Task: structure prediction
Amino acid sequence: MKKDSEISRMFAYAGKRHWLTILGMILAGLSTVLSMFPFICIWFVVRDLLNAIVAGDINLATHSGAYAWWAVGFSVLSILLYFIALCCSHLAAFRTASNMRKAAIHHIVKLPLGYFSQNASGRLRKIIDDNAGLTEEFLAHQLPDLTGAVVMPVAVLVLIFTFDWRLGICCLIPLAVSFFFMKQMMGGDNAGFMEGYMAALESMNKEAVEYIRGIPVVKVFQQTVFSFKNFHKAIEEYKKYASGYALKCRVPLTGFNVALNGTFVLLIPVACIILSAVTGKASYQDVLLDFLFYCLFTPVCTTMMNRVMFAGEQLMAAKSAVNRIESVLNEQPLAEAGSPRQPKDDSVSLVNVSFSYPGSDKKALDNVTFDIPVGKTVALVGASGSGKSTAAQLIPRFYDVNEGQVLVGDVDVRQISKQELMNKIAFVFQNTQLFKDTLLENIRAARPNATREEVMRAAEAAQCKEIIERLPNGLDTVVGNGGTYLSGGENQRIALARAILKDAPIIVLDEATAFADAENEHQIQMAFEKLTQKKTVLMIAHRLSTVEYADEILVFDDGRIIERGTHKSLLEQNGRYASMWRDYQTSVKWKVGKEVK
Ligand SMILES: Nc1ncnc2c1ncn2[C@@H]1O[C@H](COP(=O)(O)OP(=O)(O)OP(=O)(O)O)[C@@H](O)[C@H]1O
Ligand SMILES: [Mg+2]
Result:
């Protein structure tokens, strides 16, 4: 039941084109049947010639020419049908693979961001791209072959017994034995093997991508083989599967090949025995002719069984491919509210929020409560890993809380429609990624219908004018291409331009000045001010100078808020914030001192 359902699920992706797959299969089957006719024709040619030779006059072989032409005709027709079959199957296969990719891509954009930190991009790319490719390969090539392989044995059986059943059985026994070995290779443990093998391949792919990304770090720190421990482990795991399979198949594959190529071991002795038993010239000749037919026909059987085996192997791979793509499609997107509610205003509150990342026991946030009234700015500070980014990410629902509530305009974010929530919030990430596209499109990502002038205004407000003027094609320069790369600080300013263009009422800035140097920082600060005017702002910063004027500062430690208040009141409390501030002042003085020298 399940076996069929994978194939039919595969077909479903072809949409209207699935009938092309079926047509392809029928034509491939017909082509297979036709491909046997030339052998019969050749047999007739040989019989004609043999009769003429025996009669002593070669001119008696009057039909040979016609038979030969028939052989050519059938061959051409068979090839033609196969060609059309492949055209049909390819058209359907391309559609299937592209629909699979589209379905997966459309689906993953709906998944919570958390899914992507659990599933590295290398693995996702492999799952979607390679498995769609595998399905395409199977539908385009192996499925027509497989139909041929099913039709052929029937035709072979008919043919084999039309000539001499004794010699026919001699042909059939090796086929049956090779079939038995083939089942051994594909059945039992080996059926489940493909799943494990694919998983190992995916994990190797993921580690390879991670490894290549990490090469700069590896180089700088002069690391050695240990730095790609995970990659090495993934390769070893893959090796285990690949060589394990090879070892398992050692005996059956040898048996398969020996049986398939050993037809003559049976055919010749049996032909000899039959020949020794017959009397009379005519029947002697008949047996010889039949024997000749089987000699001609044996290679066809060998090719057929090889095709069946290959197609069978591909069938296993294609089934597993469908399952793997569907594992992505079955991931649940964040639940969308049935009857969405409208936020009252643009305030943000976290109420007794606790949260652990999926698969982790540790609470990244532990009973966190704070409010950001409309138009106010709240700053989060604290040590690395204290949960600041986590708190920020819960507001646009990158994840859903485990306990407590995140409210926007007094409505739980889970009850606000996704579109509404996204429209309300602009987020500047800790590490901004620009698309490999023009600056214009990069900024416009925030609001696709913005005009060029609006983009330019946002860019100017984000202090990007000088970047744009420096680039060869201004706003139309493609970044990440042909040596045009932006620095971390410049990237951040582009991200700020995006956020300014979006003009959302709630702004979340995660560590937006992390990359900035003194010059940059001043510019980013100015961009900030433009961006945050009259907005509800949550900002996270390590540089305390940027948070000094916030309406409230929350000090995070190990997922909890340990202090809260204004800059002034926190200094008076003389706790963690005051000590952070003193450290910060020292570091600034140290920097200034160095610069003065
Ligand atoms: N995607 C993730 N999966 C699992 N754990 C995570 C993930 N992201 C963060 N964490 C963990 O959650 C905790 C809080 O991380 P968070 O990123 O919120 O810290 P942060 O205060 O923003 O630190 P930083 O100042 O370095 O940016 C850390 O212990 C971190 O290891
Ligand atoms: Mg962070």
